[in-house]
Amino acid sequence: MSAMAPARAVSPALLREAGHAAQDITTVTGRNLRRLVRVPTLIAFATVQPALFVLLFTYAFGGAIRTPGATSYIDYLLPGLFVLAIGFGASQTGVAIADDLASGMIDRFRSLPIAGSAVLVGRAAADAVRNLFVVSLMIAIATPLGFRFHAGAAAALAAVALAVGVGVAFSWLNLLAGLAVRDAESAGLAGLFPVVILVFTSSTLVPVATMPGWLQAFAAHQPVTATVDALRALCLGGPTTRPMLEALAWIAALLAVAAPLAVARYRRATS
Amino acid sequence: MGVVSAVSEDAVIVAEGLRKRFGPVRALAGVDVSVSEGRVLGLLGPNGAGKTTLVRILATLLRPDAGRARVAGLDVERQSAAVRRVIGLSGQFAAVDPYLTGRENLLMIGRLSRLGRSRSRCRAEELLQAFELDQAARRQTRTYSGGMRRRLDVAASLVARPRVLFLDEPTTGLDPRSRLAVWQMLSELAADGTTVLLTTQYLEEADRLADQIAVIDTGQVIAQGTAAELKSRLGGERLELRAPPGASLDRLADAVAGLGSGPPVRQDAEGSVVLPVASGARVLPELAQRLAAAGITIADLTLRRPTLDDVFLSLTGRPAARAPDQADPGRDTAPGAGAGARRDQSATTERDIA
Q: Tell me, what DSSP letter sits at residue B115?
């Protein structure tokens, strides 16, 4: 019937579809936010872990690591810890989607008249809310320990937004991993290993210049270093355009690969 | 369309020649089923028969390798989005979020079914009451018993008042009371005109709920008909006579031969003879006379309805309890004696409860 309708009638139909999709995403996001405050592991990943990261790295590494320039270690460290905490937390997204697959929730969602991507977008959106909370919590804990933003309020907000943005890419990578490995435990590991490798071979905890040459080559050209460098520029001051562009390019590239693959997997997924 | 319209005119669920393979496992080997508007089709079969695969294809979750299927006149592959607007699905596992309350689960499904806020709320309350979950509505479902979760899952599949309902083993693992509640609910739905396809391992369930029964085994429909038709094929009831230890089963079998609707079957491991009868109560007097005349005493006598095992034994010559991929090819036509003994005991127990 709609195929017969004149072209101008397509636009309201599309708008209605978009409205439905937005509502579906809101509903799924609501479900995941409820879980975030009810599932003990998720609460720990959003509160205890970021707090521990700030305290442990500041006190255990702070004395030993000489940071470039005159910045204190916590000023150097915190932008990197945003990425570390968000990356670790994102592994729970893969666990959750694998659980949904095994428990038949995905079957149920897929039998409903909702957009194929709504379940995944709703998950990533809830993650973004969590990550906003995680970053705020880490700033709140680090401030009494001496952390300060040195480049103004706008740059500080941009830093928080960028941290949340890289979290969205992590979420989609973990959604893809969870749908691919299908088993909750494997999904957790599949999410953690890349983060561990990328974070420890990046500028997150130590300056790249202190690494051996062969590792520097890798460390200088990977998404976590790009993101952390951009975050650092936004927090500490200095030229931001180039690191920001590099970080955004990485995020866009990761999303462009992970999101379509995850949606395609979801459309065929059944327990 | 023209040729098959005689079949599909009022058929709401139509599957034609569905085939599906998972690697080396042939899950469906050409399945045809058809369910008319407002009817209930019971898909009866053991684990691994292909029931779940069929349900998943009809519910747009899986694509068949070959064949086609229509639900409410819509092609499940090419018009899957439209199909999802008219179906409800309750899968093999209770798919409810353990960290949401019963009410929140139903509200979420209502919203995702595009019911709107207030209608979602009304529908959730209705269903919570109908399934006797209103007391537990505010508890997270991880605190629910298995039966409560299952009931909530069936309720979730009804939120949008679907025209077509797929239920994959809706009462597996339920206690008798919950099972009765689900049966009651399904009878009402069917009376209201909902078209239902339900899978089950229990003949009694199919018997009670379904207008039509399709027996499925190793990916094929091996028999189809009303419960009465299938039963008459099976000879109504089973009379099981246990001989005292050491007594001759042959003598016992000879004495009762011709009394039932089929030949008596010796079960050596059990020390018993099973006789299919149209009506057990009617043959009992003559049975007693014959045994007395032959001077045979028996240790025990059980009268029971045919079980799924009997259906399978009579249709395939193979017991139903084992999934086909586990079946020992050497035993395809001769059921293992040990397994047989276990099954018959459980069958007797079921009869005792009923």
A: -
